[in-house]
Amino acid sequence: MAEVERSTSAPLHTEFAFALPRGYVDEAGTVHREGVMRLATARDEILPQRDPRVRENEAYLTVLLLSRVVTRLGTVPQVTSGTIEGLFASDLAFLQDLYRRINQEGHTQAAVTCPDCKHQFTVVAYHLHWSFEEILDLEHPVRQRVVEEIAGINRRLAEEQES
Fold first, then answer.
1. Number of domains forming the structure of the chain
2. Domain match, 80 and 113 both
3. Are residue 128 and residue 139 in the same domain, yes or no?
4. Which residue from 48, 57, 115, 138 has the highest number of Cβ atoms inside 10 Å of its Cβ?
5. Is 31 strand, coil or helix?
6. 58 and 115 together in one domain
7. Residue 34: its H or E element
8. Per-residue pLDDT at 156
9. Which long-range contacts (CB under 8 A, 24 or more apart) does 127-131 make?
10. What is the pLDDT of residues 94-111, one digit of tens each?
């Protein structure tokens, strides 16, 4: 993952690994789930708006935008608008959500899949000042304990709001 130093002590992560819920199926029938999305630039958001396909159908902006920022998808040689068009709807929605989360300053939650037990959970990574990689580098029992602690905090907060 690329990192750029900011004026603060935490590095800026510009690329984010992901795993699609279903996966892109290429012409040979190979399923590609693992990928990388980079942060969008102003150019990424401006240039697709000039495309005639976007002028005809504003929804196509999503396809062009994602084809610019998804830098890797399995062993697909190049992610194109055709690649994004070929995604299942659930995978397109997943990438749209990931795009929003990584491109909004101050995002507070990170969806993580435990590499040991494959359990999916959400953690408050930003407030802990941990990167996705740091969370996944934790030993499995430690990672489980962190998730349990955060869940406990959330339960207590919810109970306080109810009373």
1. 2
2. no
3. yes
4. 48
5. strand
6. no
7. strand 31-38
8. 77
9. 129/10, 131/11, 131/13
10. 999 899 888 875 444 556
Query: Does 134 lie in the same domain as 77?
Result: no
Residues 39 and 45: their CA atoms lie apart, in Å, by: 11
Question: Do residues 92 and 116 share a domain?
Answer: no
Q: Tens digit of pLDDT for each residue in 53-92?
A: 999 999 999 999 999 999 999 999 999 999 999 999 999 9
Residue for token pair 């130093």: 5
CA angle 49, 51, 57 (to 5 degrees): 80
Same domain, 91 and 143: no
Give yes or no: residues 95 and 125 share one domain.
no
* Rounded CA separation 51/74 (Å): 27
Percent of the chain past pLDDT 90, that is, above it, reads 47
Same domain, 20 and 71: yes
Q: What residue numbers bound the domain in which 121 lies? A: 108-163
- Greater confidence (119 vs 100) lies with 100
Average pLDDT for residues 127-155, to the nearest whole number? Answer: 70
Number of H helices, E strands in the chain: 8, 7
The whole model's pTM is what? 0.60
Residue 88 neighbours by CB distance under 10 Å = 14
